[in-house]
Design goal:
The protein has helices at about 1-10, 15-25, 40-50, 70-100, 110-135, 140-150. By secondary structure, the chain is mostly helical. Helix 2 crosses helix 3. The mean pLDDT is about 80.
């Protein structure tokens, strides 16, 4: 029996030998060392006793077949979307074309002295804003001086 079991586990047994093994494990004369294999061979016997239901349909609970979509509605909706897009473009374009901004005043000066004074005023404004910003940085320079003394980076 050990030789038959070895051939069975190696996959080299014939159908007749497998039937002998099933008959052996279904009998009451099973050796104690083979008792652990009894459930394996009894399972084969139980499977063969099962009645196969040929009317079983694995796909019966799936959703029924969907109807084909009506493509004419989709085409109408696409057409309406395209028409709405063109209407929006037309509205924006007509508004843009309606406003004719022909202002030629670029802030230029005819008199060079007047241009010079305007430039000086603009640079003074920038200078005061820049100096105000530097005043806010004074505490940082004090911190840098103190850390340079501690870490001796200078």
């Amino acid at each position: 029996m050990n030789e038959l079991l070895h051939k069975y586990w190696e996959g080299q047994s014939s159908l007749e030998e497998e039937q002998k093994l099933v008959a052996y494990f279904n009998s009451d004369a099973v050796a104690p060392e083979h008792e652990m294999y009894r459930s394996v061979f009894n399972t084969f016997d139980e499977e063969s006793a099962m009645i196969e239901d040929l009317n079983f349909d694995a796909f019966a609970k799936l959703a029924p077949e969907e109807k084909p979509k009506d493509h004419s509605k989709i085409r109408v909706l696409k057409g309406l979307g395209i028409a709405a897009g063109f209407a929006a473009l037309l509205a924006v374009g007509s508004t843009y074309m309606g406003t004719n901004n022909t202002s030629t005043d670029l802030g230029t000066y005819e008199d060079p002295k007047e241009a010079y004074h305007a430039t000086v005023e603009a640079l003074q404004l920038v200078s005061t804003k820049f100096n105000n910003g530097r005043k806010n940085l004074k505490p940082l320079t004090e911190i840098n001086n103190k850390t340079e003394k501690v870490f001796k980076t200078k």
